[in-house]
Structure formats: structure tokens, C-alpha cells
Design brief:
D-Amino Acid Oxidase, Chain A, domain 2; FAD dependent oxidoreductase domain-containing protein; 6-stranded mixed sheet; 22 strands; 8-stranded mixed sheet; FAD/NAD(P)-binding domain; single chain; about 25% helix; alpha+beta; about 375 residues
């Protein structure tokens, strides 16, 4: 049997890995096994902010590669139209309730703030709509022969005869209880916040290695608003510090090319919500959603006061013990890419390319040696 690589997870990491595997090798079979749908969890609900130089020394090479790949992918697949890719200017805004005497040049909707400073320009920051980016990567991979199994939950790994370590097949269970058996010389754990629980289930507690240590973050709520067209919004990415009603909040505000505005970072998200079994069971935290709506109305009452609420959503991010992504070989035939925290979309393409190169025995396009399992 030739190589058959099964990727568990249909988010940005899984889709990117399949995309680059299918680009780099035509003589391997590639499968994505996804329990719900492509980009059903955080890859569909993230903000999509991209930054070249906001990273520590260990992730800097990966981030630089990935930022470059975002541009290359947009050039290759009409990213501006397909997933709202664009270079952006990025600012830090401070707004205090009793001191709103400044404005942001070139942004009339930000005409009542306290302080502004620039964090990035079109050379160093950009954005993408992560749901459509992930969907496009998966579709292109599928057009190259990658098989995508949706509504299929990885339930068992059958190991090679005479070995309890080297995989031979992956069994996935459909929602109706039926099973599909996929040849698997290699299994990739790229299931975001579910990586740890799946690795422990399929490999066993003591054999899951670094994959078993990935844990979900606290829930992160977000809203998407559509302001009235009479209140045009510029492409400024905003990190804010707000002081109002005796409280401090730091929401992030990302206007998108489609005319909507994404807000996250409600603060105070200490509601203890366990990670659900499936991405389609995620529900937003009502108190966090309300805080975001209040913050939006405070930032720009004219723009957001009567804006249409397009979406209220919630997601969990994958966290590692080191706070860094973990990418590479766990053991023979077992691979992982997870633990990206808030930088999953930014570092997704670079992760997918480097992991594909590792699996195929090629030199990696970035030095990720300090991110190994």
C-alpha cells in the first residue's frame, strides 16, 4: 500500500496541510476527517487578523512564512474576492468616557476618541475572512484529489499487524452510527481544541505524547455587525482600551471587505463552559455578547448604535503547555499541528506547508525546530 495520510480536523490547519500535501505530492492519498463541516469551529468564527512581526523568536520564522503565504494564496486564488483578503492599517485606540476630543485621520466614524497610536501598516498587517479562506483551501485540495469526509468523527485507529504503534487504518463514525474505514499510513492530529481529547482517546493516555497535552482555551465570544451604508466604515483594524460605566474593556474591532464589522474580546469571560463534543454544539455566552454590543455602541454610537447584528458566536482555541504551536512528528506515522492560540489563522498556511514538507521528508520552508512535539 502506498502512503495514505488522514488528517483529523477540517479547520485552517487541516485544510492548509491538505492543500500543501496535494500541491507537493501527487503519489499519496490524502483524506480529511471532520465531524461537522469545514471551518465549523474557531476557523469559521475567528477574526482573521494577520500580522507579520507580532511574534516571539520561536514563532517568528513560521509567522513570516505564513504572512507571505497569505499573500501568495490570495494572488493565486483571487483572495480579495473569495475571502476578503486585504492589507490594512492597524491602530491602538483609547477611549475614555469623559475625554473624547480626538479623531483618527481618514476615519470619520472614529471621530470621538481619547488617544490613537499606529501598530501596523499595509506592509505588516492584513486580514482575511477565515471561514471563506478555509473553505477555499479545502475546495482546492479536493479538486486535486483530496477526499473529504464530513459528519465523520474519528473513533479508532487500527494499528499495523504486529505493532501497537504504527497506524494502518482510521475508523470514523458517521452520525447514523455507520463506520467508514480509511487506509492510514499516517494520521495527523489537527483538530484545534479537540486535539488533546482525540489524541488521548485514539492513542491512549500514555501514548498520546504532545498531542494529548493540547487543551481548549476559555470560550471566546464574538459578534458581527452590519452598519447602515450611510455610516461607511474604513479598513482600520482596531485594538482598543475603553473606560466607561466605571469599567475597562479591550475589544478588538475588524471591519471587513463585505461591509460587516467583527468584534471580539469582551473581557470578563470567566464563565466556565466545558468544550462540547462537537463544533455545532457551541453556543455564545449571553453576558459576553451583551458586553461586546455595549462596547461597540461606546466606540462609535452613530456607526454601531443601530447596526444590524449578523452573528453572535463563540469558539474555543487550542492551547499548548508552552504557549507555542506544536508542529511535527509525535512518533512513526503520527503527526500533529495544534496549540496555535490566537494565531491559528495567521500561522495556518505556514503550518500546513511545513507539516506537509515534514511528512514528505522535504526541507521545511521555515525553521520550526523549536516547535517540535
Amino acid at each position: 500500500m502506498g502512503r495514505s495520510i488522514v488528517i483529523i480536523g477540517g479547520g485552517i490547519i487541516g485544510a492548509s496541510t491538505a492543500y500543501y500535501l496535494s500541491a507537493l505530492a501527487q503519489d499519496v492519498q490524502v483524506h480529511i476527517v471532520e465531524s461537522v463541516s469545514i471551518a465549523a469551529a474557531s476557523s469559521g468564527k475567528a477574526g482573521g487578523f494577520l500580522a507579520l512581526d507580532w511574534h516571539g523568536s520561536k514563532t517568528k520564522p513560521l509567522a513570516a512564512l505564513s504572512f507571505k503565504l497569505h499573500q501568495e494564496l490570495a494572488d493565486a486564488h483571487d483572495g480579495t474576492k473569495q475571502w476578503g483578503y486585504r492589507r490594512t492599517n492597524t491602530f491602538q485606540l483609547d477611549i475614555e468616557e469623559k475625554r473624547r476630543n480626538k479623531s483618527v485621520p481618514g476615519a470619520e466614524w472614529l471621530n470621538s476618541i481619547s488617544k490613537v497610536s499606529k501598530l501596523g501598516d499595509e506592509q505588516t498587517t492584513a486580514q482575511a475572512h477565515p471561514f471563506y479562506l478555509t473553505q477555499t483551501l479545502a475546495k482546492v485540495a479536493q479538486s486535486r484529489g483530496v477526499q473529504i469526509h464530513l459528519g465523520a468523527s474519528a473513533s479508532k485507529i487500527n494499528f499495523a499487524p504486529g505493532s501497537d504503534k504504527v497506524p494502518a487504518e482510521l475508523v470514523a463514525t458517521k452520525s447514523d452510527g455507520s463506520e467508514i474505514v480509511i487506509p492510514a499510513t499516517d494520521v495527523v492530529f489537527a483538530a484545534g481544541p479537540w486535539t488533546g481529547v482525540l489524541a488521548r482517546k485514539l492513542l491512549g493516555e500514555k501514548d498520546a505524547g504532545a498531542a494529548g497535552t493540547i487543551e481548549p482555551s476559555e470560550p471566546s465570544s464574538s459578534i458581527i455587525l452590519r452598519p447602515d451604508p450611510s455610516h461607511p466604515v474604513t479598513s482600520h483594524m482596531l485594538f482598543t482600551g475603553l473606560t466607561f460605566s466605571g469599567r475597562s474593556r479591550e475589544p478588538e474591532v475588524y471591519p471587513r471587505l463585505d461591509g460587516t464589522v467583527y468584534l471580539c474580546g469582551a473581557g470578563g469571560e470567566d464563565e466556565s463552559i466545558p468544550l462540547p463534543e462537537r463544533a455545532d454544539q457551541l453556543k455564545p455566552v449571553p453576558a459576553a455578547i451583551q458586553r461586546l454590543k455595549e462596547a461597540a455602541a461606546f466606540i462609535s454610537p452613530e456607526t454601531f448604535g443601530d447596526a444590524q447584528v449578523v452573528a453572535e458566536q463563540c469558539c474555543f482555541r487550542p492551547n499548548s503547555q508552552t504557549g507555542l504551536p506544536v508542529i511535527g512528528k509525535v512518533r512513526e506515522g503520527i503527526w500533529m499541528a495544534s496549540g496555535h492560540g490566537v494565531w491559528g489563522i495567521q500561522n495556518g498556511p505556514g503550518t500546513g506547508k511545513c507539516l506537509a514538507e515534514l511528512i514528505l521528508g522535504l526541507p521545511t520552508s521555515a525553521d520550526i525546530s523549536q516547535l517540535s512535539p
